[in-house]
Structures are given as C-alpha cells and as structure tokens.
C-alpha cells in the first residue's frame, strides 16, 4: 500500500498505519483504502476550508476512517460525490456541518439496537440506529467533506437509565456539539440540559497525544480519551488518597467512580493511584459512589458533590473484604434551562425525505404481520424480508434463485441477527448455507437434539464479533477432530488456542471484536476473541457451542452444557451453587422481575461492582440463579421524579449448594422520601378548554380530574421523547392523554403508533402545548389522581413505566 501511495496520501497512510488496530491490518483492502483517501483528497481540494484545517486537527479528526468499533468500510469512496454536492455551496464549516446533519437525518431515525455497532452503510440500508450509530453515520459523512469531528459520550447517566453518544464539530473557532442525524443548531441538541447533570463526558481521538488545552483522561494503544466534562457544565475535582492498614500509601490501587444505572452501581471513570497513593479526576456535580481496590481489599464512600465548588478529598484505607448490607440516596444536580439558537431552520424537504424513506424501507406494516399465523412459512418469510429493510431486494432475489432447501434458508434467516441480514450479500449468504449443510452432517453424526442446530451450530454470529465467514479456514484446521468424542474435540481446540494464539491485553479502542478467522490470522486476540475462536472451532465440526453467561469461559454440548476456560491460571468451573431469591416490591411478592430494570446481581472485583447475567429460573414464586461459589450482591434502586435514586445493596455468600435470600425493591421507607422526590414542581391543573383531540372532541374536566390519568407531552423528533414513550407503552389499564409536538394529525398518530402508545391524541406547536401545561422540557409525563399530580417527571426518564406501576399498585 505504501508503494502505491504518493504525495499527501502516502503521508496519510504512514500516519494511519502507526495506530491502525490489528483487525484492520488483517482485513483492510489496500486498493479500496487508497481510493477512500483519494476521495477525501478530491473533496478537500474543492472546498474552501479544505486547506485551512490545522495539521493535528486534520490528522486526528478528519483523516481517520474509523469512528468507533463499527465494521471496516470505505465510506468516503462510496459517498464522496453525493456529500460534496450537499456542501459545495456552503461558505464555512458550520453551515456545511448543519447541511450534512440534515442529510444524515434523511437517511435514518433513532431506534435502540443491539450493543455492537453497525457500519454507516448498514445504517443507511436499515434506516434506523441507536445514538452511537447515528453519530457514526454523521461523522463519516462529515469527514468525507473535510469537517473535523469526534465522538463524545457519557458512559451512564446518573439521573436515569442508559447512556448517550453524540458528536463534536470543530468549526473555525472551537468545538461545538450536535446529535448525529438530529436537526438542531450547534450546541442546541436535546441533551444540552441533561449533559450538565452527568458525572463525566469523554471524547475519543485517534493516536496518543497530549493536547494543550484539554484534559487527558487516558492514553491507550493507538488512541487518547479526553475528559471533556468542563465543556458542558460546572465541574469539581475529586482527589483520592489510598493507604494500607499501616497508613502507608498504596501505589497502583484501582480508583472507581460509579453511578446508579440499570439497577447496578456502574463505573463511569477509573484511575490508578501514583507512587504517593493519590489520584485526581475532574467530574460533574452529582453524588457518586467512589471505591478503591487492590489485592482483594477495598473501601468505598458516597461522595456528595451536588452543591460543592471546591475539590473534594477522599481518604481510603484498604481493609474491607466483604460487601455491606446497606441502602443510601444518590442525588443529582437540579435541571438548568439552557437556551438554544432559534435562527436555524432545517430544510422542510428533509422531513419529507425522511418520512418517505422510512415508508420505503418497510415491506409490510408490522401491525399486519402481527395478525398472521406466527408459524406459517409465508409469515416467516415476510418477517425476515421486513427485518432486512434496505437489503430486502437482495434477499428476495436470493430466495427466488434458491429452491433446493428453502426450509433450511428460512431457518437460518430466523436465527440471524437483523444487522447481519442487512449486511449479507448473495455470495456471503451462499457460503453460510454451504457451511450449514456440511455442519448438519457432523451434527447429525453425534445425535444432538435438533433444537440446538440453528442457534448454536449454523448461526454465523456467536456474540458481538465482526460479521463474516470463517468456515472454510476453521474446517481445514480442525478437520482431524471431526467425529471424535466431544471432550476430546474440546481439549484439542483448547490446546491449539493456548499454543498458537497469544493473549492481547492492550486492545485498541478503534476496531471491533475480531471474529475467529481474524483471530487466527492475527495469531493473537483478547480473552473474548480467543473464546470466540473456541466456539467457532467447535461449531465448525458440528458440536453446539456458545460463550458462557459471564463471558469468562465458553460452553459446548455433551448431554448437557460443559464449561471450558482458556485461562490456565483459573480452575475450570466444576461446581455450581444456587441462589434462591424471593423478591418483594412494596410489601408484595413479585415473580415477574426483570433483570436490569428491577434488579441486578453483581460480584465485587478489585473494588468495583461487576454486573453479571446468570441463568435464571422461576418456580413457585422463587427465582433461582445458578452461579459458581463466591460472594455476590443484589442491587436495586427506586428513582424519583428528579432523578435522585434510593439504592439498596444486599450481599449473599454463596458457598452451600443452595442459599435462600429475600430481595426488597420499590419505594423507599416513608421516612426516607419527600414530596419533591415524586413531583418536579407544583401542579396547578391543565388548561384544555380550547383544545380538540384528533377526532375533533373537546376534553372535559372529568377526563383528567377523575381517577388515574396519564398526561404525556412529546417531541417526536427527540430521542428523549422516543425512548421515554417506548417505556411508557407498557403501562396499561389507565387512560392516556397524549400531546404531541406536530404540525399535523398524521405525524402525531404516526409517533403514537411507532411507540405503541394508546389514548386520546392531541397535537400542536410547542407554544400551543405550553398553554395547556407550562412544562419546561420534552418529554413531560404526569400521573394524575383525581386531578392532583401523584408523579411528574420531565426529560429522559426510562424508568417511567416502573415508577407509575409502583405508585398505582
């Protein structure tokens, strides 16, 4: 590649190769890569800002072809002309960035997806993506026309569940933030107020460097993480000192900063102490769970930073060995009103193009599919074609040309992940089918239960590795193991990996998880990549295999699932114990508990709570968890209207065959709760006298002053409203008044249908809606009881359904 490149492009290749992740060094196509750089060069030469970007800004925020862990693609090569046409008349970077964001909005809409990133081109084909995938598309489009951008995120919100990722754009003067594929002015995204309440904001840059005017959070192998929290709101310093029981400083102790999110104590920042036992972190103003750990000893403290302006100093003594049985509040900073530029007006045509594209990507209305028999051949085909969205024609063409074994093809599509269906072309699909036929013969030789074949042998996806076909290589390497007893095969694969594949401990942030073929080619891999190779090899010879529930081992089938570890320093799991838990919510027994929403189970490692997802079974009102012996804890939390959360931690020592415990969750004790934990501000009623719903009916006072009623205000263009609406949809047996910011009836109805909300629907402009209730931000959700507010929340509130259900029952 270096021999073929010339001039600036040769310098660019040399620069990128210095920090290129292993996965790209293996799979990159040199010709396509050079053409991708030429496409960038062409646009830079044609745009007014192309020659004015400072070198370091260009190298770290324009030149990189990757944004995160998405699959490798040559986006600039494929979209250079289209995106140039979008910005060729823009006078500066600011106007160009806004235009590109309008283009990105036209391509897609926000919708939660699986945890691994899809490529920007798959996002376009699919027409949907989560916040990081929206950012990836926007950033790649920006970089194609020379606009400096970087990925920014907060690992977990402290005031609600989930997290968020967005984009910073470097204009001629400074960095500004935008939600990818969300048409707002610079620094005016929906999260502009939320981010001022978070614990930490991080940005990612290509390569290792020390910027002059920004805080370096961490420098890793080929990347730098920046602490950008001061760019978004008030911050404070957190200075931690760690000593041992004799008072001596402890070097290299782990310092963890955590918040409550999805029913767990989740880390958002990590540092090591220096040789004087000290570490310092700049954080946002909210209560934090701060802990330290080293060599099986730990300590912790709830640090109250909500109202402080000075550096907070924490002294830890490494002495604890067990998890406490405790409860406590973690409070968050109050909301601040942050105005935004109202002069920016998105192109009206972008809204129309967006809606038209979404309609074109849907083959059959999902509501129609729900009415068809689930098991029918035709329904299965339609559902898979619907899932494939922009790749529908490719799959349909393949279906029409493949008549040998359509039941096999359909069964494969049924188990394939949606992202993989969309990423598959005809040749890749043929390879998957050919491999499945070969594996089926091996599978049948062993006499495994038929139910295991498609999920644990034929499925081309194992976990969240990069999608691709590795079958021929694996079959060739492990062909001699075909037909041997399962344990003999497993032992042979383990020996191969332990002797041939090194452990990669310092993985680059950029680039996804390598699949088995890529790990073989690299001769090295992270712990999870080596386990994926084990699973891939077992499947290649027809033996069902999967990653273990804790991701620290793998399992293969031999009359039952058998655990395997590749870590020679750790004994294979030969004994399991059972934790039998009774869950009690507000004094009532619950058996329908949901992991991550009602509770989580954690294990303490080096001073931090590691979230687990052990197998669960329910019988006679008891929930059973199968784990290896050790100390665990259940974590639950109840979050109030302002985002403050009451946390309960219950330790469980699991050494006997079966351990019984009772887990409490739900509302805090009466003495621990105040009225403002439920209602954000005084409620003075609704003004609905001049309003008609979409059917033309005027509501009466009894519609909201009698019994329980939910009143919900939404902006359908904002992620906070969409995510909150999806949660609220699970609430039933209560009337809804749904008020949507929209210019027409159709958009309001569409929003409710997409998010499965039922009730009386109203629509209007923001100012019209505020005449009904003087809310401060979307979404604004009230639970009224006989006309009085029992609950009132504003902003992103993913626990809204749980809060309402608890208060009603």
TrEMBL record:
<dbReference type="InterPro" id="IPR002931">
    <property type="entry name" value="Transglutaminase-like"/>
</dbReference>
<dbReference type="Pfam" id="PF01841">
    <property type="entry name" value="Transglut_core"/>
</dbReference>
<feature type="domain" description="Transglutaminase-like">
    <location>
        <begin position="123"/>
        <end position="185"/>
    </location>
</feature>
<feature type="domain" description="Transglutaminase-like">
    <location>
        <begin position="519"/>
        <end position="570"/>
    </location>
</feature>
<dbReference type="InterPro" id="IPR038765">
    <property type="entry name" value="Papain-like_cys_pep_sf"/>
</dbReference>
<protein>
    <recommendedName>
        <fullName>Transglutaminase-like domain-containing protein</fullName>
    </recommendedName>
</protein>
